[in-house]
Specification:
The structure holds two protein chains of two kinds.
Chain A lengths: L4 H18 L4 H21 L20 H32 L8 H11 L16
Helix pairs in contact in A: 1-2, 2-3
Chain B lengths: L6 H15 L4 H29 L2 E5 L8 E5 L1 H28 L6 H20 L3 H19 L5 H32 L4 H9 L3 H19 L7 H5 L5 H25 L7 H20 L4 H21 L3 H32 L10 H4 L1 H15 L5 H16 L2 H30 L13 H19 L1 H16 L2 H8 L6
Antiparallel strand pairs in B: 1-2
The chains are: A mainly alpha, B mainly alpha.
Amino acid sequence: MTPNLVYVVVIGVLFAAGVSMVLERSLTRVLMGMILLGNGVNLLILLGGEAGTPPIVGLGPGEQMADPLPQIMILTAIVITLGMTAFLLALAYRSWAMSGHDEVQDDVEDQRIMRLAERDQGSGTDDTDHEATP
Amino acid sequence: MTFLVPLPVVMPLLGAALTLMMARRPRAQRTVSLTVLTATLLVSCALLYFSTTDGSLVVAVGGWEAPLGIVLIADQLAALMLVVSSAVTLCVLVYSIGQGMADGHEETPLSVYHPTYLVLTAGVTNAFLAGDLFNLYVGFEILLVASYVLLTIGGTENRIRAGSTYVVVSLLSSVIFLTAIGLIYAATGTLNLAQLVERLDELPDGLRLILQGMLLLAFGIKAAVFPLSSWLPDSYPTAPAPVTAVFAGLLTKVGVYAIIRTETLLFPGGRAAVVLLVTGLLTMVIGILGAVAQSDIKRLLSFTLISHIGYLLFGVGLTTQLGLSSAIFYVVHHITIQTTLFLAAGLIEQRGGSTALDRLGGLAKLSPVLAVLFLVPALNLAGIPPFSGFIGKLGLVQAGVADGGVLAWMLVGGGILTSLLTLYAVARVWNLAFWRTPPKSMPSVRLPALMVAPTLALVTLGVGLTFAAGPLFDVGDQAASTLMQRSGYVEAVYGEGGAP
């Protein structure tokens, strides 16, 4: 398909909105971002093939047939996105059930190291004297 | 012998379906999984033998010839990776069965574990055998989806937290990969790797560079190359020990394999060589500095995993045959050793009740077997002669010196520094967990034989790599020379006449 402005702008907007949603902390918003990104990519793939009549032998002259390969790839990509959406939803729900929110938390170990760095302390792991370590 | 080629993908998938149907019969599940993975290992060995004697084996799936149909291709590199990966997955499966018995099925709900594990194996083998970019993407998705389930298995709060990061980052890398595939198809009208070899050469330079950059970005996230690596140490350590072990051994290496495949086959001539070398250097040094600072064995090992990916990039980035063959040898070594170390960390957790270094001590006296199982692969990782880590690093250093450029010398220096710091990091674990007097009395737990035996088998395999280093380097060298002359790959796919 020859790229026209409408398609290009729509893909651009889907990507931009998707990226900004993925940068959020809440898993539900990340999920929305992933769906937008996935749709953007699918449209992009569609632009890669020739447009034309339905790609079924006998329905028309072969020269005018649409390229079926991008459509097949999009179909596969949609199925994968659907599965991932279900999994991310389950993950967000589980996170909400366990901790009351669905926000992606900082790593526990990273938080610990940051706290130690603020107080300018060592981790105490290498001390041979065990009474000193809490 | 081409009927063997699809088997490493088909058998685990069938096994997954069977084990899913046997959800209530754990004993039958175990039998099926073990049989399937043993058969996969045997088939992979046969593939390696035939691809060495008769050249690459190619199957057009569904009977449609290339470039219309999808091809699976088992050349030496793919076959070698298949052998190592199936050996590792088999050992880890036995280990996880041992751990399941010891933990009383609490940590790993067996009904989901076996099917998911087999699906993961199928994804890995599919990615290795793929002769088509979209099939490579599907292989990646299969293994990633299985890995999401394995990483969050049990659904505890920690695993959900670590899993969220992992899932989101992996999804993003998949989106980038898929975008790259869409652009490549739009530019060339094909995704068959053999056909891309010619069609990509006809594209303008700037466009090729963009496509190459996008693929490198996508694979770089999966392979945990430095600026894209911070998801790995946050997510891997929370999973059960066997899961972490198989992830550490295989998943990042599939990314590295994809980098090797695309850089040599699709984008030869080393235009991204500088990028690979610089990121390789940063990955090595910054990764290992992270490892030195850790106070938990599993996190420390995750950082050494990132760090040693740098060595592989070093070998690929040199774009010489010696560099590439050393990188292939190093991949084989690193898959085995890193998995073994994570299994040993699992044993330490079993014996000492924790992997936090400030809670461990005196394990050398309490469990001499465990001490040997940890020390041998640890020294191997650090590259102490005569272990295979030393041989691999020596090959890379030789390749770097032969290259002679400023950047190559910096990488040689960085590689040696990383090796020394790795030794420091593992020696620190050894001193704290094995030698000092224990901070509190250790519980007296007997290590289950089914956990010790596979770890021992992998330790033996790691040591065996030293004795097999000569033949293995020869195979790596042949694989590298086939990769360097791309015509071999194209002829294998299209037959003698070359492309139509």
